Amino acid sequence: MKIGVVTFPGSLDDVDARRAATVAGAEAVALWHGDADLHGVDAVVLPGGFSYGDYLRAGAISRFAPVMETIIKKAGEGLPVLGICNGFQVLCESHLLPGALIKNHHRKFICKDQPLRIENNRTAWTSDYDANHEITIVLKNQDGSYVADEPTLDRLEGEGLVVARYLGQNPNGSYRDIAGISNERGNVVGLMPHPEHCVETLTGPSTDGLGFFTSVLKAVVAS
C-alpha cells in the first residue's frame, strides 16, 4: 500500500511523515505540490511546516497548489487524507474541513509533549485506537488554535466529528479543547499535534502516534 506525503515550499515534517508511513508498513511516496498526479497512492498526508512561509495566512496559498485540486476531488470520492498541523490548516482553507486555525491565544510558538483523548475511533485514521483512548504525542505550532462559530462547533460535537481533544491545560486556546476533527465520511482528518514524531522508541515521548498510520492501512484494505 502506498501513502503519499505532499511537500510544499516550507514543509518541515514531510520526511518524518514518510518515515512514519514506512514504519507502519506502507510504501511512502513523495508527492510534489506542483504535480497534480497522485501517482496511484492509497492515502495522502499533508505534513506540518510553514508552507509558503505562512504568508497571507497559514495554509491559504497551499490550498491552490495543483496537487490540492486532485486531493480535493479524490477526498470527495473517499480517498483517506490526513492533515497534520500546517496540513490541518490547508484542509480548512480547502473547505475539506470546517473552521479555521488562528494564532495561539498566548501569541507564542509552543513545543511540548501533549496528552490527548481520541474521541472518534471510527475514522480511516483512528480505528486502531480504543474509544476515549488517552495518548501522548508531540505538539508544536504557533497557529494552532482551532476556531469555528457556535453552530459549527455544536454540529461537530453532536455528530461525533471531534477526533481528538486536548487533556489538561489547553495549550493554544482551541475552542472546546479541540485537537482534531474529521469530515462526515471519516476519510478526511485534521490534527494539530504530530503523530509522525511518535512512531519509534528512539524519538518522541511515546509510540502513540503510530496508530494513525496503521489505521489507514486497515481502512484501505477494508474499502
TrEMBL record:
What Pfam families does this protein map onto? GATase_5
Show the catalytic activity: N(2)-formyl-N(1)-(5-phospho-beta-D-ribosyl)glycinamide + L-glutamine + ATP + H2O = 2-formamido-N(1)-(5-O-phospho-beta-D-ribosyl)acetamidine + L-glutamate + ADP + phosphate + H(+); L-glutamine + H2O = L-glutamate + NH4(+)
Active site residues per record: 85, 194, 196
What Gene3D superfamilies does its record include?
3.40.50.880
Q: Which domain of life is it from?
A: Bacteria
Q: What is its EC number?
A: 6.3.5.3, 3.5.1.2
Please tell me where this protein is predominantly located: cytoplasm
| Subunit record text | Part of the FGAM synthase complex composed of 1 PurL, 1 PurQ and 2 PurS subunits.
PANTHER family given in the database record: PHOSPHORIBOSYLFORMYLGLYCINAMIDINE SYNTHASE SUBUNIT PURQ
Give the protein's biological function.
Part of the phosphoribosylformylglycinamidine synthase complex involved in the purines biosynthetic pathway. Catalyzes the ATP-dependent conversion of formylglycinamide ribonucleotide (FGAR) and glutamine to yield formylglycinamidine ribonucleotide (FGAM) and glutamate. The FGAM synthase complex is composed of three subunits. PurQ produces an ammonia molecule by converting glutamine to glutamate. PurL transfers the ammonia molecule to FGAR to form FGAM in an ATP-dependent manner.
**The protein's name:** Phosphoribosylformylglycinamidine synthase subunit PurQ
Q: Which organism is it from?
A: Kribbella orskensis
Which gene carries the instructions for this protein? purQ
